Amino acid sequence: MKLTLGCIADDYTGASDLANTLTRAGLRTVQTIGVPANELKLPEVDAVVVSLKSRSIEAGLAVSRSRAADKWLRGRGADHVLFKICSTFDSTDAGNIGPVMDALRADCGEKTVLVTPAFPETGRTVYQGNLFVGLVPLNESPLRDHPLNPMHDSNLVRVLARQSKTKIGLVNLATVIRGPEAVRAHLADLAGTGVGAAIIDAVFDLDLETIGGVALDHRLSVGASGIGLGLARALVGSGGVPRGASRKTEEAPIGGPAACLAGSCSQATLQQVANAEETMPVLHLDPDRIITGPDEVRRALAWAAQRIADGPILIASSSTPDQVTALQSRHGRDAAGHAIEQAMADIAEALVQSGVRRLVIAGGETSGAVVDRLGIPGFLVGAEIAAGVPVLRAVGAKEGDMLLALKSGNFGGPQFFSDALGLMR
Ligand code: ADP
Does 232 share its domain with 327? Predict the structure, then answer.
């Protein structure tokens, strides 16, 4: 199998967002957790998004991890690699966008790289090289106070120039709206003056399609899910993505017992848990008992064992904001959060060992703890349950085929748990 598109994402949630965007645009996409082992067997897919955690680490480390991901993707035939960054260009003058871009560009021998974090559907637009977040320039948005990467300059040509060793140019909107040929001609002029990377304006989805088409002439691009959408549309539009009945085989139903775990205490999750009481047995864990010892996990597993054969169950640690604050003041916020996440991972692991093959998890950190514990190397992204929450089919899991839904905080409609189970056959 030859990959049509390779992607390296600098954080996990950004990777999921990109994988979901590519899937919606018609690319069969696997998201991997870290650089996969060489022997990982992939299903028939068009794109792989390798999720790294490299956004805020030391630049040298971000470079070496990204190069390893790039090598893996190119080794599977990816002619074009997208380095996926945050749509608010989160970085400091010390990196990591510039250094990673420089290294990947040198590795693939590319002359000019197109760079844009624009994603109009989420309010990220770039005009004259300046990034806007909603109605305001980046440096007036809440990103100016970001704890790790405070953004004080909205001019991305300048921002990237401070991080990169190459000369940075601009392809502005006036050129983009004249179409792919105008962009190609302008890029050729820039390359002639020694420009190695160009920020490219995008204000509408149509601009992303122009950019995606041109970017495919090159071996590397840098941007957020918006340019991912442009690349995917260009690939689908040019017939670069194969279609066939044989690709359906991985969508065979999995069946088997199903369980839901809720560790999120968001308003939406509290309502979803309350609604689930009408359709499945629900166990409310005692958070104090979780923190003080293993008995609560044992109680939950015994409770589950008596019911799981009869249909889906839900186990929730979720409580109201007042209760959460009280628990945190008794045990400390981090200690409480960590203990409950690990208890959820214990429960998930034991449920999977006992045969559960369909798992719905509510809570971003909770999902991370469960996925880490289960050691799942990657996911094939499937149908969307709710905006931004797809069904995930585990790839390369030691337990074999398994379906998961991972929902953070406020995502999903009021009947999220039954909506998810309805699509996880
Ligand atoms: P969300 O996506 O809603 O932010 P997360 O899983 O990311 O959900 O975060 C919820 C955090 O709250 C986790 O660290 C979890 O362990 C913790 N938690 C879960 N239940 C409780 C509770 N009853 N009291 C305090 N903290 C809790």
Answer: no
CB of residue 317 inside a 6 A radius of ligand 1: yes
User: Where in the sequence is the domain holding 313, given as residue range(s)?
Assistant: 258-423
- Mind listing the pLDDT tens digit for each residue in 95-145? 999 999 999 999 999 999 999 999 999 999 999 999 999 999 999 998 888
The identity of residue 303, as a single letter, is W
Share of the chain above pLDDT 90, in %: 84
Total residue length of the chain: 425
Closest residue by Cα to atom 24, ligand 1, is: 324
Residues 398 and 268 in one domain: yes
Write down the pTM of the prediction. Answer: 0.90
Cα–ligand 1 centroid distance for 330 (angstroms): 15
Q: What is the DSSP string of 70-111?
A: HHHHHHTT-S-EEEE--TT---BTTBSHHHHHHHHHHHHT-S
For residue 245, is pLDDT > 90? no
CA-wise closest residue to 349 among 246, 250, 261, 282: 261
Structural domain ending residue among the three candidates 186, 203, 237: 237
